[in-house]
Structures are given as structure tokens and as C-alpha cells.
Task: structure prediction
Amino acid sequence: MLIPILIIDVALVAWSLHLMKQAVECKEFSFMLAGILVALSAAAMGLVYFLMGSCIDHIAQMSQHAYSYF
Result:
């Protein structure tokens, strides 16, 4: 599952760089804002993936310990 997330993140970063390049060429603030928002969403998606992975691992370990007592 890590590979698809990384591919999507790389694609989002590439898209944001493309938007920022268009912003510089056209002198448009809206393209720059869109590029920043896309880059932030890519970073947030990666962060949430890694945080949830740690959380799910912790919950799985807790459930294994709970069943070992019975």
C-alpha cells in the first residue's frame, strides 16, 4: 500500500510544481495558490498515512495481547 501512496504523492507534487511554473509565466496569483494547496495536500496525505500506520500497528498489538490472556 505504500507504493501507490508514494506514486500519488509524487504526482501531486509534480502537478503543484507545474501550477507554480504557470503562475510565474502568466503572473497569476491563483495558479500559485493552487500549487501551494496541492503541495500541502500531498504532504498531509503522506503524514496521515504514516500516522495511521503507526496507530493501526499499535491497535493490532493491543488486540493480540488481549486475546493471549484468554
